[in-house]
Amino acid sequence: PRSHPRTCPSAPAAPPGPPSPAPSAAPATAAALGAVLASAPEPLRDDKVPKMLRRALAQLSLSSMKSADLCIGRPALLTSAEGRQEVCTAWPTAGFPGGKIGLAETTQKNLKVNPGDALTVQPVTGAVIQAEEVDVKLRDKDATVNAEEMSVCLLRNLDGKIILPGNLLAFTYYGRLCNIVVMKVKGTDGAELIAQGSAIPGDSNEPDLERSDLESSALDLSLQLGRMDIGDSPEVASVSTPSKAVDPGSPVTPSDLELPGEGSTEGLPLTGRIGAVSNTDCFYFISSRTKINFIEPRTSAAEDGECQSRVTYDMIGGLGSQLRTIRETVELPLKQPELFKSYGIPPPRGVLLYGPPGTGKTMIAKAIANEVGAHVTVINGPEIISKFYGESESRLRQIFAEASLCRPSIIFIDELDALCPKREGAQNEVEKRVVASLLTLMDGIGSEGSEGQLLVLGATNRPHALDAALRRPGRFDKEIEIGIPNAHDRLDILQKLLKKVPHSLTAEQLAHLADSAHGYVGADLAALCKEAGLYALRRALGKRPGLWDTAVAGSVTIAFNDFLQGMKNVRPSAMREVAIDVPKVSWSDIGGLEDVKLKLKQAVEWPLKHPESFIRMGIQPPKGVLLYGPPGCSKTMIAKALAHESGLNFLAVKGPELMNKYVGESERAVREIFRKARAVSPSILFFDEIDALAVERGNSSGAGNVADRVLAQLLTEMDGIEQLKDVTILAATNRPDMIDKALLRPGRIDRIIYVPLPDAATRREIFRLHFQSMPVSDDVCLAELVERTQKYSGAEITAVCREAALLALQEDIHAKSITGRHFRSALAVVSPRIPDSLIQFYADYQQQSGLHAL
After folding, report:
1. Strand pairing category for 176-187 and 192-194
2. Per the record, GO CC terms (predicted)?
3. CB environment 778-799: b (16+ within 10 A), e (fewer)
4. 125-134, 201-210, 302-311, 487-496: least confidently modelled range
5. What's domain 313-481's superfamily in CATH?
6. Greatest extent of the chain over all pairs of C-alpha atoms, in Å
7. pLDDT grade, residue 308 (50/70/90)?
8. Contact 118, 35 (CB under 8 A)
9. In the chain, how many H helices and how many E strands?
10. Eight-state DSSP code of residue 328
11. Which pLDDT score is estimated for 228?
12. What is the mean pLDDT of the segment spanning 464-485?
């Protein structure tokens, strides 16, 4: 072996290159100087230093290099106080003050040093040997890059770089700064070095050193160094403190290290704590013949204990039938492909999971990946889309090629509709090319003898937006709907969610929660459990939210009332777009109208509470109820009470709000409102002033007969080819003569209820309800008021009570009660506004149309 070449620090030297082997007969002891990291960056201007080596330089003055016995362009071992190590190339800088050293940002992260931290600098005197194999770990965001291309780029950028296990390496890949972590190094001498968990920089919460192209270019061109006020004379032994404090919140930038001058030892350590590697040990460098092995981030994360808990089939509730179908379709071809071959059945190439958001499609895919044990590649929607021509298709081909090599394997494409929309509606050519590439790749599955060993699993909540060519047999052979769970499925989901949660719910209370959570999907139920847990914590802490101890932690259990409180804040996700604040109006708030209340309960509440009775009688519950009558007779208030008392999801539609000036938009709005009602069923769909929406055909005067088309859409949605299940239509109007007769037939509107003016008993009940919240004096005669309010509607009776209260306040703003005199004056002001002709109109309408109050 040749002796370690030494270049005089004052003599010119060639730019640093790959280190040559160093002899073991080098001096056993070498100078070691302490160092302190400082701030105040200063740009480096040295055109002799190659660009690719600037991130691995240790910038020093000539006097500091002499003190540390460092040679120009030779490796130097840096050791932090915590024992973290990095090998850099020593390089002098003209005019650089003595006692300073400049390090790149990546080096600082490897050493985990900040301004003011102590370091030890030593020359590398051990043998420097070529690395045969190096295992590196990519970040998750770089996991989709081409491993072969990145390996070539890595070798080109880091040729000659001495590496240690656990080091973070930074290099530019197609204009982007990439970071990798060295996990294991194997030398040509057969020795192996493996990184310890604590030595991996990427394990901390520090930000990745990723910058824009302009910033990374600026970093390449200029290694920023800091200066500190220090004496010009070499005899000055003292070093001054930086005048400006370093902001810990500022972004990490390359800074400088302060080295004591020759003979300066006061206040600084002469030797630092040396880690597992000594400067006399063997070191390994990357060469063009080094093999780079890329480790998947998920594997490394699992080894470090950072992976999330494994999702298994047992953790999924409410999807028993779907899971059985999926296991038959997915597991058998992957685990026992010979069964399909022996019967001559082609195994499926793709399975499509579709359904509303939050029903568990992605969770099923994770469970399949964990249970089957196959190699899984995940594509999250449009993450492979690139702005460069042809790169998106290239990434897709690369993913399929890697999956084919690692079979049995599964390719899971989440949000498939974003990657493969319909080609006729594609916004650009990239989407069309990606769809065509995926079709070709799926047709090619099994052509290389891997039939049944590669399966594509897709998930979407918009199956109608997918390209039709994808959904034919031979590509996505099986389509499985992951729908909204029913009461039994919701109970199963709640039991799985609460398996490891301390709670005091009985089986009956859990069943009640499942029954009342209409339209909730799995994600909504998980959010409900979380919200109930927060209520339980608030209840346990009480008025001391800042106090917490182990005794409180062990005593917190979720109660049934916590879930009831949580349900007020957590609504079904499908209802968030159309959610309305349902007023807390109960049946007791509506005076009289007992027959109307009973008929509405028969149509809405009975089918939910007594479904077996309808099955026993062999009948279907009423689909629709129409309330009609004079204005102010509590038709809308009855709908509010029904929404509150039934506990069902309530969607309110105001007649004209669905109308749109654009052709087809009004019909689309009708379809959309019915789709949402089906999604959150059982539900009530309330049409107020339906006469504006369902006007009789032939009477519309608008251009294009928009009203006729809206009516036709409404009729088909209520009773068309697609059955309307678990959705009750409730409509209100005071002009039944304008509604088309086709809407009023049984099967669409089964119950037509006339809401008349209140009779004497109803008026008495209305007054009694108002008097409960009004300070009424003893001289008020309820019977007199009932007698004098004949032909008054419910709204007009409310107006009489309000007017009487205002008259009392008009006399005395501090009045304590309302007297009979005030009510008599109010009756003189508020008179009945519904003429006898309108009442006669409703009676004649019943006789002429054959519609009677049922």
Report:
1. antiparallel
2. cytoplasm
3. eebeeeebbeebeebbbebbbb
4. 201-210
5. P-loop containing nucleotide triphosphate hydrolases (3.40.50.300)
6. 122
7. very low
8. yes
9. 27, 26
10. I
11. 33
12. 85
